[in-house]
Design a protein that fits this description.
alpha+beta, 2 domains, flat
Amino acid sequence: MKLITLGFLLVFIGVLVIFAGMFSTAYQAWKTGETEKPAVRGGGIIMIGPIPLLFGTDVGALKVVMILAIVLMSIAAFIFLLQSRML
């Protein structure tokens, strides 16, 4: 399989996953009827190189995001070290 074909396939799968999530969320909102406001919790990571910037709505969300940031930093360091050994 050529690398370009694999890239297009991964992008297509990503778009399908996004659409499936949108339809799932819309169906769940329609099914429940949205009679009461749910508590919203969330957080995110902005990776600038290997350095993460974290934000979140509460401590619980930040703990999950922090664990994800540590995993992403470890993967980035591993890929960086793997690249330097290949050269």
